[in-house]
Design a protein that fits this description.
Layout lengths: L9 H8 L7 E5 L5 H10 L6 E5 L25 E9 L8 H13 L3 E4 L3 E6 L2 E15 L2 E11 L30 H22 L5 H7 L6 E5 L10 E8 L5 E5 L2 E5 L3 E4 L3
Parallel strand pairs: 1-2
Antiparallel strand pairs: 2-3, 3-7, 4-5, 5-6, 6-7, 8-9, 8-12, 9-10, 10-11
Helix pairs in contact: 1-4, 3-4
Length: 276
């Protein structure tokens, strides 16, 4: 049995966004290695027009720190995940906090029960369980004398079939699915819910930075007041392996960790949550 044709709201999205992003286009591909990789290739070749690229299947999707993006289900009637990349020229005064604004915009457009895990994940937290609903990957390059940004998003839509239950063991954080919160939502529905607000928030960020979004992010911060460890390539005042209590983010979007020796600002790292 072949998959049903997915009715993407490409024209509706174009009509909403073209007035605020001149030369904006929407493209849907049945399969691609990675939407981010493709838009970065195009930008480096001089194609820097604003574009939304949607993939019905990614064969080499990427997450932060080079990790693979895993689709968590195979369904005939719908897509297991929504994967898209938005590319556009952007010139903010400070890039710090862009991934937080993107996550905040998507979370608030989808459902009030979605939380934000600094710096680039959307989580569903129920009881003592933390599960990853979506991830964000942001890349930039110099093209045609300006900076071009590619914002990649992957959102789990459908729960995996029973035969797929073991696969999430390869993930660092267990997975969640949007249909847990919105039982009838499809990938196409989710895309239309988020796009206009997302573009507006990105343009607002370019003008005003992260500071206007700080309080809204704080309200959805799943790491606040929780014990965390900082690992990876952290640029902090001290060695990696730092532990403390999450203390929110500052006006630059830097993650704050309260340690026994005082507060430390983290601006580039992998933050993992340790059980209390």
């Amino acid at each position: 049995m072949s998959k049903k044709v997915i009715l993407w709201p490409a024209e509706a999205i174009w009509e909403q966004i073209a007035p605020i992003l001149p030369n904006f286009t929407v493209e849907v591909l049945p399969e691609i290695d990675s939407t981010n990789t493709e838009l970065m290739r195009r930008a480096k070749a001089g194609h820097i027009e604003p574009i939304l690229l949607i993939a019905e299947k990614q064969t080499a999707g990427r997450g932060r720190l080079g990790r693979e993006w895993h689709d968590l289900a195979e369904r005939i009637d719908s897509l297991p995940a929504l994967t898209f990349s938005l590319g556009l020229p952007l010139s903010p005064q400070n890039w710090s906090g862009l991934s937080l604004v993107v996550g905040l915009s998507i979370a608030t457009s989808l459902h009030a029960d979605i939380g934000l895990k600094w710096p680039n994940d959307l989580w569903l937290c129920k009881g003592n369980s933390d599960r990853k609903l979506a991830g964000i990957l942001i890349e930039t390059c110099a093209a045609e004398g300006q900076r071009y940004v590619v914002i990649g998003v992957g959102i789990n839509i459908l729960a995996p079939s029973n035969g797929f239950r073991e696969t999430p063991a390869v993930l660092r954080t267990p997975a969640a699915w949007l249909q847990e919160l919105l039982p009838t939502v499809t990938a196409a529905d989710a895309l239309q819910r988020v796009m206009l607000t997302l573009v507006n928030d990105i343009l607002q960020f370019a003008q005003h930075g992260f500071a206007p979004y700080q309080k809204r992010f704080d309200a959805l911060d799943v790491l606040k007041s929780r014990k965390v460890s900082v690992s990876g390539s952290a640029r902090i005042e001290g060695a990696e392996g730092l532990e403390g209590i999450g203390n929110g983010v500052n006006a630059l979007g830097e993650f704050l960790v309260q340690t026994a020796h005082g507060e430390v600002r983290v601006n580039s790292s992998e933050v993992s949550v340790k059980p209390l």
